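Before relying on records like the one below, remember that each one covers exactly one chain. Contacts with other chains, cofactors or solvent are not represented anywhere in the record.
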Amino acid sequence: MGLLLLFSGLLHLMFADWQPYLSAEASVEHVQCWWLRKLHGVGWLFFDAILTLVFAALFWMAWPSGNPFVVGALIGMGMVFSGISRLMLVLAAQVPGDVMWNT
């Protein structure tokens, strides 16, 4: 997760189109869901991965058609949901008796 956040600016510059970037982000989030599947609250991360995949599909179908406002709104909504899912994952992981507390 840290590497994706670290290199997100670089990935953004590498991909002129949003669809490959969002597809790569959704793939990384699905892998994170698999790694963290025993934690409470991983459903939030899975929801974010599915939402990111839906946004990638919308860009793949050329739905926003280059309208900067719609593109910005979709990317902004994706960032908000990504932040909320990370916050809820951290709050749920702090539950005593969780897998991470027993190690």
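The CA atoms of residues 41 and 88 lie 7 Å apart.
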